[in-house]
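Render this sequence as a predicted structure.
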Amino acid sequence: MRDGSWRRLTDIANHYDLGFEVVLWARSFDLLEWTEALKDGAFDVLDAMCEQPKAVESTKTRFVGSLSEGRWARPESG
């Protein structure tokens, strides 16, 4: 998280209007880093040591939401 490489992913997603969220899964972070990540475009920051079930649920929820919004539809099918 500290190297900031994830920010490039949010920049690309926003620039091309890809419509996906970035959820960070970090082993160590503090409240300031969490706040900065949210301000910089992260959807959420999860603690890898304690929030593994939340990470799975968050991923599943966002993916299913994307399916229902038609973001994963094949171009030739619609």
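Summary. The mean pLDDT is 76. The two ends are 38 Å apart (CA to CA).
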